[in-house]
Design brief:
Length: about 160
C-alpha cells in the first residue's frame, strides 16, 4: 500500500520536528556546565572543552525551520489536486485558532533555540575577559532543551 500525499507530508513534518527536539535535548546534554578560566596578564581567558553544542543547536534550528515550512505546505498545498482558497480556509474558527497557536509555538521555539545557540557561540568565541573574577559560564542550563519541549507540545497537538 502506497502512502497518500497527506501521510507523506505529515510524516515529513513530524520527522523534522522530532529531529529538532532530539537535537536540542542532545545539545543540552552535551553542553559543559562551564569553561576553565586561565589567568593571563590582566585578563581571564576561558577555555571550553571540545563539544558539539553549537553544531547540534544549529542543526536543531534548521530542522525546526524545515518542519515549519512543511507545516505551511500542509495547510496550503492542494489536496488531491483541488486547491482551497485561503480566505475560505481561514473562515474556519477551528483552523484559525489551531494555525495561530501552531505558528506562535513554533516561532517561540525557534527564537529560544536561536538565542541559546547564539549565546553559546558567543561564550566560545569571545573568550577573553578583563574582569579577573569572570567564571567562564556557558548558555543557561535548560535553554537548549526548553524549545524542544515547546515543540513537542505543538507536535502532540497536531
Amino acid at each position: 500500500m502506497a502512502l497518500s500525499q497527506t501521510v507523506k507530508i505529515a510524516l515529513a513534518v513530524s520527522f523534522f520536528g522530532v529531529l529538532a527536539f532530539v537535537l536540542g535535548v542532545v545539545a543540552e546534554n552535551k553542553k559543559p556546565p562551564s569553561g576553565t578560566p586561565i589567568q593571563g596578564k590582566g585578563v581571564i581567558i576561558c577555555q571550553y572543552p571540545s563539544d558539539q553544542t553549537v553544531l547540534l543547536g544549529s542543526l536543531s534550528i534548521i530542522s525546526l525551520f524545515i518542519s515549519m515550512l512543511l507545516g505551511f505546505v500542509s495547510v496550503f498545498y492542494p489536496y488531491k489536486g483541488k486547491s482551497v482558497p485561503t480566505e475560505v480556509l481561514f473562515r474556519s474558527t477551528t483552523l484559525l485558532v489551531f494555525f495561530t497557536i501552531a505558528v506562535g509555538v513554533t516561532v517561540l521555539a525557534e527564537g529560544m533555540m536561536m538565542w541559546a545557540t547564539i549565546t553559546e557561540g558567543f561564550h566560545r568565541s569571545r573568550n577573553v575577559h578583563h574582569n579577573l573574577e569572570y567564571d567562564c559560564p556557558t548558555a543557561k542550563t535548560g535553554s537548549l532543551a526548553a524549545p524542544g519541549f515547546w515543540l513537542s507540545m505543538q507536535l502532540s497537538s497536531g
